[in-house]
Amino acid sequence: MKSIDRDLVELSDLAPEAIRTLLHRADQMRTQQVPLWRDSVRHVGLIFAEPSTRTSLSFIAAIDRLGAYPLQLDAENSSFSKGETLLDTASTLESIGAESIVVRDGNEMSARSLADQCDAGVINAGGGTRAHPTQGLLDALTLLDEFGDLEGKTVGIVGDVLRSRVARSDIVAFQALGARVVLVAPDYFQDKTLSEAGVELESKLDDALPHLDAIQMLRIQKERGDGDPENNLQNYVRDYRLDERRLALARPSLVVLHPGPMNREVEITSGVADGPRSRIRQQVANGVPVRMAVLERALGQASG
């Protein structure tokens, strides 16, 4: 029977110490001689039923640096288009030799279902609006690079919180490291149920900014429906876009994150995204060692 310690469906499945262990291993991965494995052949199945740039490419890079081989599928060029189920596709990958399966699917329970039914270690690469665990880990690693420790730090997550799987995984990762989390959004993009997770809710970005050590900007997820009943983009840009004028309200030490893809000049201006406080490119770079650490665990190869 497969050890559940190989699956990563949601960060909330892990104890804070397990999250810290993965982040420590990711940090070590940055200085590992690659490829890490030279003595045997390992395959990783990649099932992306939703579009992806950063996540899919960094998983491929991580697989390559480990010394494994990707078996890559996308929805348009697989038997999904013929009606094959996700489980049948995963079973095919296992039969070919995949010891780990990375899945992104619009159904937030798909990764959980595969983890329950597959012998391979299953990694959730983004499920619905519920979880994106490797993004949460790489965001946390980026902040650890900046501050060394998140104990006592305050991190703001701003924008379309309601439909953001990144926000939910970030909350778990940041709190596991001791950070205070503030969700900043208009009512139509706020998820008040998240207050039960111990986060603070704020409706005014200008009021929250002076108290933040870091800020994660989220895009409006139009592909998941129109969350704004008034569809008033102009007001949203006025009240929630992070631009140079608004950034002047923040502490000089504030750092800016964005999980991508960015809608430039909507939630963030190019001047901020490409400016000296931005750590967006570092987030992308950190995706590779984080996913190396998670894949190592999923393949049952994790070391201390």
Can you give a write-up of this model?
With 304 residues, the protein is of the alpha/beta class. It folds into two domains: 4-132 and 286-298, Aspartate/ornithine carbamoyltransferase (Rossmann fold, 3-Layer(aba) Sandwich); 133-284, Aspartate/ornithine carbamoyltransferase (Rossmann fold). The protein has eleven helices and nine strands. The longest helix is centred in the C-terminal third of the chain and has 19 residues, at 280-298.
List keywords for this structure.
304 residues; alpha/beta; Rossmann fold; 2 domains; five-stranded parallel sheet; four-stranded parallel sheet; 11 helices
Mean pLDDT: 93
| Class derived from helix and strand content | alpha/beta
Task: Please provide the count of β strands.
Answer: 9
For the largest sheet, list the strands in their spatial order.
7-6-5-8-9
Strand proportion: 15-25%
Integer tally of domains: 2
Name the CATH class of the largest domain. Answer: Alpha Beta
CATH superfamily of the largest domain: Aspartate/ornithine carbamoyltransferase
In the CATH hierarchy, the architecture of the largest domain is 3-Layer(aba) Sandwich
Instruction: Please tell me what the overall shape is.
Output: globular
Query: Can you give the helix content as a percent range?
Result: 25-40%
Which sequence of SSEs, written as H and E, runs from N to C?
A: HEHEHEHEHEHEEHEHHEHH
Gyration radius over CA: 19 Å
